Amino acid sequence: MNTGFLFRTCTAPTILTKFFRRSKGYKIIKRPDPSTLKMPTPGSAPSLMEIIKEKLRLNGPLTVAEYMHIISTNPTEGYYMKKDVIGEVGDFITSPEISQLFGEILAIWFYAETQKMGPGKPLQLVELGPGNGTLMVDFLRVLNRFGYKSDDVSLHLVEISDTMQSLQARRLCITHRATDIELPYYYEGETVSGIKVYWYNDLKKVPNNFSWFVAHEFFDVLPVHKFEKTEDGWRELLIDMDENGKLYYRISGKETQSAKVLIRPPLDAGDRTELEVSARSLGIARQLAHRVDEYGGLALIADYGHEGEKGDTFRAFHKHKVVHPLENPGECDLTADVDFSQLRIAASKTPGEGNYAVVAGPVQQKDFLERLQAKARLQILMDNAKTEEEKEKLKCAYDMLVDPKKMGERFKFLAFYPSSMGPILEKFPPLGFVSEK
């Protein structure tokens, strides 16, 4: 066969046109403008129970972490997405809502510890899960007293709930607006004193600059995986639905992928039979340690938790009372005590990591506040009170914060410093974390 002739014939323009001509061309699709898209209104979307039921049908039992994620962050029906849940009319109350003293003491701690590093200006004040914005109101008041001007500080809030973001904007800003979808922050505003305020849906989007990071009652709502130790090793606690449509717990028959990845020494040491691990919490702790060490600043975590001695703390709150976590999904606050020992491990130096933090704590809230002269601040507030009723309220609020039977022992503080601060902290120990000699 004359292969040369065949090749020339097949590559002739007429043959190519015949073989490769498209009978129909691709049409350009007109896509919608992302800025005009809106989520379904609450009530028009499937209920959380319907969503959970469908996920169980398609994928089988859910992990507790998956369940918590659905309940907390569903765009329309999620617990934090559709209503204000903090305060007397909500399901729980936080320390900043109890007394202005709490936020003031935290701001003073940041300012005092920053003086060990330098002037600390310009400053990014970053809060993870800002609640109603009350804590930042107290912070900004203290910064104003310390001489911070609008050019010295900017406020960066990590918040995924449009409902909570709206509350924060009304509390903090004199003007506020949505931003272009191309920007890393989805909302912006300005305080009455001219301080710029920005909202993000992810910590990774906050600019890498010298920052104070505050995480108050943030880690306790992050999803946790629950494990139990059986004769066959660690097995994960899963959530399933019975024939009557009621959710219940069951143990995985085999070792799940979560158990393989998350249960590592020293977590599985000793005689522990129950364990809770939040992969999301460990990742954020590493982020904070990295950012503090590489770009400068401080991180302070305040939450209720333990140091590794507890194993089963997953629960729900409704109207300030403890209820079953699997009942009425979306109507209750799901939470688990923070394991501060795990956060310490995540933030401290590990092989192969270039940035890590010097970790101080955890210490009990009672000790932290009292070591920072909270009683002296209480006395000043009482001296300025106009009535005996106001004085009594101040005393009751302070008692709520420091009484060991209330918040005093259950809530703890953990701090991250840049690794370069090690020698300085040996000479000038972290305020609030060590007893005065």
UniProtKB/TrEMBL annotation:
Q: Where is it found, in Gene Ontology cellular component terms?
A: mitochondrion
- Localization annotation: Mitochondrion
Give GO terms: molecular function aspect only: protein-arginine omega-N symmetric methyltransferase activity
What is the catalytic activity of this protein?
Answer: L-arginyl-[protein] + 2 S-adenosyl-L-methionine = N(omega),N(omega)'-dimethyl-L-arginyl-[protein] + 2 S-adenosyl-L-homocysteine + 2 H(+)
Q: What class of enzyme is it?
A: transferase
Q: Which GO terms describe its biological process?
A: methylation; mitochondrial respiratory chain complex I assembly
Spell out the SUPFAM superfamilies in the cross-references: S-adenosyl-L-methionine-dependent methyltransferases (SSF53335)
Q: Which UniProt keywords apply?
A: Methyltransferase, Mitochondrion, Transferase
- Spans traversing the lipid bilayer: none
Q: What is its main location?
A: mitochondrion
EC numbers for this chain: 2.1.1.320
| Family to which this protein belongs | Belongs to the NDUFAF7 family.
Know the name of this protein?
Protein arginine methyltransferase NDUFAF7
Gene source species: Parnassius mnemosyne (clouded apollo)
